[in-house]
Each structure stands twice: as structure tokens, then as C-alpha cells.
Design brief:
Shape: globular
Strand order of the largest sheet: 16-17-18-19-20
Strand content: over 45%
Structural class: mainly beta
Length: 190
């Protein structure tokens, strides 16, 4: 499918040019095979089977992960919804990122940790920053500098690095951590 814009409205078409998501939205997320977040005016919702399901009091939504969930903001707090637009983890975090490998980084009381799909802490909040897990099962976390933890929270690469994103062929601008077995890092001399 391809995201298209016509007369300041967004939708999706297939390879034959057939509209599969009506070109009727002010903003539209990326298609994940099941559902897409969308915005009509100030109302956010979920588009599934080309039907728009508005979500009450939601002020922002992000793209769905492969786990079929995404994070959404209600008021000042963030929680997680499924592709039907149902809250699976009620808004309770100050910040959040996507679920990858069944874990998501969330920010609470000025620290980042990781939760599972039921909202249980797997890695208690203790980091200044944290990114999503890579397919290899490692995630970058920041203490003073960046290191990498595994899905149990064990530090497997010591926090001796700065990490960056973008400017390196296989990395997208927003990606950090391991991609195809490599991570872009920077060390400081001395």
C-alpha cells in the first residue's frame, strides 16, 4: 500500500490505484497490515477495515508496532492501545516508546525503564534515557553515557559510548541501537 495525499487529505491506495483507506484524513500513520492511527480535525482515532473509530480524549497517537499495539497520549499521560483502539495499558507514563520484542521503554518520575505487554515492570526505571530493543535483543540505555542491556535488564555492553542516528547507510534517522548486527557508537578520548 502507498500513503497518498489529495486536496490536503490523506489515505492509502494499493498497487492498482484502488483506494483502500479513504482519502479523508488530516493526518494518517503508517500502515502495519491491520490498523492505522488517523486524525480528523482535532479527533484522533484508529482506522481498521476502512472504518474510523474515534478515541475519546486522545491528543496524540504513534504508529503501531509489530506486536499490534501503539502508545497514545490522553491528557498529559501516555498508555498503550491495541488495533481496536482499546486501552491495554492505561495512560500512566510521562513518555513512552514502541513495543519491540515484547518490551517498551517508558518514562516515569524522571527515569526510564521497560514494561511488558501487561504493563509489568521487567526492567525497573533507573536510566536517564532508553531506546527500543533491536531484533537482536539489545537496547541502548543511558546512565551518564550509553550502554546496552538485554531483555532481562542485564548490562551486556558497558555504558562507555555516545550513540547517534542517521548518516550511516543502513540506519534511518531516528534509529539507535543495533541494526543488522551493528551499532553506531562514539567514544571520547582520554
Amino acid at each position: 500500500y502507498s500513503k497518498v495525499k489529495k486536496f490536503d487529505r490523506w489515505g492509502f491506495i494499493d498497487k492498482a490505484g484502488k483506494v483502500v483507506v479513504d482519502i479523508d484524513y488530516d493526518d494518517l500513520g503508517e500502515y502495519n497490515g491491520d490498523a492505522i492511527w488517523a486524525r480528523k480535525g482535532e479527533v484522533f482515532g484508529i482506522v481498521k477495515d476502512n472504518n474510523f473509530n474515534p478515541l475519546k480524549d486522545v491528543v496524540d497517537i504513534w504508529d503501531f508496532s509489530d506486536e499490534g499495539v501503539t502508545y497514545a497520549q490522553k491528557g498529559d499521560l501516555v498508555g498503550y492501545i491495541n488495533t481496536a483502539g482499546e486501552w491495554i495499558i492505561i495512560p500512566q507514563y510521562e513518555k513512552a516508546r514502541a513495543f519491540v520484542n515484547g518490551l517498551a521503554p517508558v518514562y516515569l518520575d524522571r527515569e526510564w525503564g521497560y514494561i511488558d505487554l501487561e504493563g509489568n515492570w521487567v526492567v525497573e526505571p533507573k536510566y536517564r534515557d532508553a531506546e527500543v530493543f533491536s531484533e537482536s535483543g539489545l537496547a541502548p540505555v543511558k546512565i551518564k553515557r550509553w550502554g546496552f542491556i538485554d531483555t532481562t535488564g542485564k548490562m551486556v555492553i558497558s555504558p562507555d559510548y555516545d550513540i547517534t542516528a542517521g548518516g550511516f547507510g543502513l540506519f534511518k534517522f531516528e534509529e539507535k541501537g543495533f541494526i543488522e548486527g551493528m551499532s553506531r557508537v562514539k567514544t571520547r578520548e582520554g
